[in-house]
Automatic annotation (TrEMBL):
Protein name: Iron-containing alcohol dehydrogenase
Domain Alcohol dehydrogenase iron-type/glycerol dehydrogenase GldA: 19-190
Keyword Oxidoreductase belongs to the record: yes
Domain (Fe-containing alcohol dehydrogenase-like C-terminal) ranges: 204-398
GO MF annotations, alphabetized: alcohol dehydrogenase (NADP+) activity; butanol dehydrogenase (NAD+) activity; metal ion binding; methylglyoxal reductase (NADPH) (acetol producing) activity
Source organism of the structure: Acetonema longum DSM 6540
Listed transmembrane segments: none
Species classification: Bacteria, Bacillati, Bacillota, Negativicutes, Acetonemataceae
Keyword Oxidoreductase: yes
């Protein structure tokens, strides 16, 4: 296995539109990043993070030291929750503005980094609110610099131009996509992720798997997305069981983190479609639902719908999870059943009813899939017509 020849302690620079430091010990690159910020004339930053993982992971000690040594002042907003809300973003923006911050340092998984991207935009648009942003009421062309210190291996948000912020009273969970929110620098250090418990390890890894399955099969699908999908799924299939069994296995974390990174690049290029478009209403309705878990429950039903249109690609990329697929349209049920079997093996629940959804929720979920700002674009990228009947069928099959 070629991975054994990779020195996981050698910190590599991965250049997309973001410069990402990947490897065990990459957090120590924060000193170089702080120096780069001072070189840009940045004297104050807002740290956007969750309630505790930024401290428990050890990331904050290193970040704080680097900022102190380089003379960068900071204010910390540590109230971001899973599925961050517009209210949280507005609150963080107010604190940042009052302090005079001109950069954002986001520490955490997808939620703090996504929220940090929202803060970065609104710091550049002082007359706008997070709700204005999430309902696309103004044109976004600029943001203050974002630094992402990643604490999970799933979202890919540390290397892409996307962010997700919820408007709770409308149960909207739109997708923001702007070139100005690519992080300037990101840190992907597997040593910061060894405290992730087995279930969360699966949820974030299944998020990465969904990213590439969708990216490889959208109308914008391309050879890069397919190649990255094959690599991502192969890595996750081999290393996720290892990380679940031994959360402290640094090599397993490293390779899952790399898989997540390239999955982020894949959907930054190929975009997403049905699974994410339908999961956002789930966690819009029930914000406590882990994003990756919702995706995992929906995925088999989505693949069943799209398999006849993309049989060859899906057979190729799903081979590590569902062996024996030949790439013929009549294999949709086989792909569906094989995925459900694999997902169960890695701790993903099989039915939406296990998360409290009922048949009475279907109408509202379908409505949200079509009414939430931006989700229409995702639906339009599906390789089959994403009609209301198709969306309803996926939800019903996932119950």
């Amino acid at each position: 296995m070629w991975e054994r020849e990779i020195d996981i302690h050698q910190v590599a620079e991965v250049r997309t539109k973001t410069t990402t430091y990947l490897g065990a010990g990459a957090i120590n690159k924060m000193s170089d990043i702080a120096a780069a910020l001072t070189g840009r004339g940045i004297k104050k930053a807002v740290v956007v993070t969750g309630k505790g993982s930024y401290i428990k992971s050890g990331a904050w000690d290193v970040v704080k030291k680097a900022l102190d040594e380089k003379g960068i002042g900071y204010v910390v907003y540590n109230k971001i929750t899973p599925n961050p809300t517009a209210d949280q973003v507005d609150e963080a923006v107010k604190i940042a503005r009052d302090f005079g911050a001109t950069a954002v340092i986001a520490i955490g998984g997808g939620s703090p980094i996504d929220a940090g991207k929202g803060v970065a935009i609104l710091l550049a648009y002082p007359d706008q609110t997070a709700r204005d942003l999430c309902e696309f009421k103004f044109s976004v062309e600029k943001a203050v610099p974002v630094i992402a210190v990643n604490l999970t291996h799933g979202t890919g948000t540390e290397v892409d131009r996307f962010a997700v912020i919820t408007i709770p009273e409308k149960e909207f969970k739109p997708v923001l996509a702007f070139d100005c929110i690519y992080p300037l620098y990101s840190i992907d250090d597997p040593a910061l992720m060894t405290l992730l418990p087995p279930d969360q390890t699966s949820y974030v890894s299944v998020d990465a798997v969904n990213h590439v399955i969708e990216a490889a099969t959208t109308k914008a699908g391309n050879p890069l997305a397919v190649s990255l999908a094959k690599e991502t799924i192969d890595i996750v299939a081999r290393y996720l069981p290892q990380a679940r069994k031994d959360p402290g296995d640094l090599a397993a974390r490293y390779h899952l983190l790399y898989a997540s990174l390239i999955a982020g690049v894949a959907f930054d290029n190929g975009l997403l479609h049905l699974t994410h478009a339908l999961e956002h209403p789930l966690s819009g309705l029930k914000p406590e639902l882990a994003h990756g878990l919702g995706l995992g429950i929906l995925l088999p039903a989505v693949v069943k719908q799209i398999y006849p249109a993309k049989a060859g690609i899906l057979a190729a990329i799903l081979a590590p999870l569902v062996p024996g697929l030949q790439g013929t349209p009549d294999e949709a049920a086989q792909a569906h059943d094989g995925l459900k079997k694999w997902l169960k093996q890695v701790g993903i629940k099989q039915h939406l009813t296990e998360e409290g959804f009922t048949a009475k929720d279907i109408d509202r979920l379908v409505e949200l899939a079509f009414d939430t700002p931006s989700l229409g674009l995702l639906l339009s990228m599906a390789p089959v017509e994403a009609s209301r009947d198709v969306v309803r069928t996926i939800y019903e099959d996932s119950l």
